Amino acid sequence: MITDSRGRRYNVEMQVANKRDMDKRARQYLFKLMEDGFLRRRQEYEELHAAYVIFILPFDPKGKGLKRYSFVYTAKEDPSVELNDGSEIIYLNTKGTKGKVKPGLDDLYRLIEGKPTSNGKFISRVKETMNNYRRTEEWRKHVMNTEEVAEAAKQLGMEKGLITGVQNLISVLRDYGEDNQNILQQLKQKYGNTFSDKQLEDFLKQS
After folding, report:
1. CA dihedral in degrees (193, 164, 197, 174; nearest 10)?
2. How many alpha carbons fall within 13 Å on the CB side of residue 193?
3. DSSP state string for 66-85
4. In what order do the strands lie in the sheet with 2-3?
5. Residue 195 neighbours by CB distance under 10 Å
6. Which of the residues 95, 107, 126, 178 could staple to 182 if both were Cys, CB 3.0 to 4.6 A apart?
7. C-alpha span between 60 and 44 (Å, rounded)
8. What are the Cα distances from residue 137, in Å, to 6, 69, 105, 129, 133?
9. pLDDT (tens digit, 9 = 90+) per residue, 151-162?
10. 36-55 pLDDT, tens per residue?
11. Cβ neighbours for 37, distance < 8 A, ≥ 6 positions apart
């Protein structure tokens, strides 16, 4: 959560997955901002500060191709009539092609998409902040955790692929009329370095 010099409150996050509940997630974040900014006694309603939830999205959340989707409360009977409560939910779509955004924001989109950027002040500050963060202990731990998760996923995928290979071999050998003893022997020859005898026997029983 960020508060600027005028008291306006912001929740800015990167959402990497296009989940169906994203709109309600944004509403929850907005209400949390509002709750944290409730008036104290003897304050007037006009002292309530604006609250913004901003999601940076590497996908198009609404499929309209807009670079930016800005949501405010409007009258169903006449969408041009807005409820001026100072709240707004904004989706920044890095895949967008329609509409205009400020050059600095367009540069940010390009950076996220892995495209060349300008040398403007805003994007230069973003890159400098990123480089500084990469030197921190927090970043090193994040990278290590990410690499560990990626390696685990890779190993899981390889293992699933091998299990499929075992199951396919059992099916083929049975089609050729081989009995379980001969099938198990061939499984041990081909997959004995990867799976234990007990695992291979279990695969045979389950197939």
Report:
1. -120
2. 2
3. BSEEEE--EETTEEEEE--S
4. 2-3, 9-14, 51-57, 87-93, 68-71
5. 19
6. 178
7. 39
8. 33, 36, 28, 15, 9
9. 655 565 566 677
10. 766 666 677 777 788 999 99
11. 9, 48, 49, 51
